[in-house]
Amino acid sequence: MIERAKVSQVRHTASVSSGYGVAMRDDVTPEGAAFAELLRSARKDAGLLQDDVIQRSGVSRSTYLRWEAGDGVRPDLRYVRKVCQVLGINPRRAAIALGLVTPADLDLAPDESEYDPMVVEINRVLADASVPDAARAALRHTLDAAMNLWRTAVAMPEPHEPRGADLARRRTPRA
Predict the structure, then answer these.
(1) What value does the mean pLDDT take over residues 86-103?
(2) pLDDT beyond 90 at 138
(3) Which of 2, 50, 105, 143 has the greatest count of CB atoms below 10 A from its CB?
(4) pLDDT (0 to 100) of residue 71
(5) Residues 6 or more apart from 151 whose CB is under 8 A from it?
(6) How far is CA 34 from CA 30, 40, 170, in A?
(7) What value does the mean pLDDT take over residues 139-154?
(8) Confidence (pTM)
(9) Measured distance CA(25)–CA(65) in Å, rounded
(10) Could you give all domains of the chain from N- to C-terminal order, each with its CATH number?
(11) Which backbone phi and psi does 28 adopt, to 5 degrees?
(12) Is there a contact between 82 and 59 (Cβ–Cβ < 8 Å)?
């Protein structure tokens, strides 16, 4: 892993687009590029135009366009927070993109969007106190059985759906 101080010193030239769609050359740092990508993807996911974000956040047009172009190495953090609120970005994610902290510094769990939707749903069911204990226990039992089946399948020289004989060899006594 490259130290933050070294990363900050690394600059490269990249082609970026201005708010007017005109390609230009600009010095972009890795942090600026990461922050720009975070803003662009969140804005597009929210279905907003650059002008919408500018108007709702109160950030100047030139500032926001520079940020989306990758020139966001030393932005005013008060304005970063306003833009994050408009775009629904966790400000900690912006701090990571800007290279101010690492996920480990924040002990930050991955976004749910990084997981399969089924995993997110299972996690919610298991954490939901309104779901009866018996139902949660049944889900855990089912997941345990599915994991055992999966372990059996991937342990085979040529993975395939396990048959009865395969399962009998892997079965372990329950405590």
Answers:
(1) 88
(2) yes
(3) 50
(4) 78
(5) 170
(6) 6, 10, 46
(7) 89
(8) 0.49
(9) 14
(10) 4-108 (1.10.260.40), 113-170 (no CATH)
(11) -125, 130
(12) yes
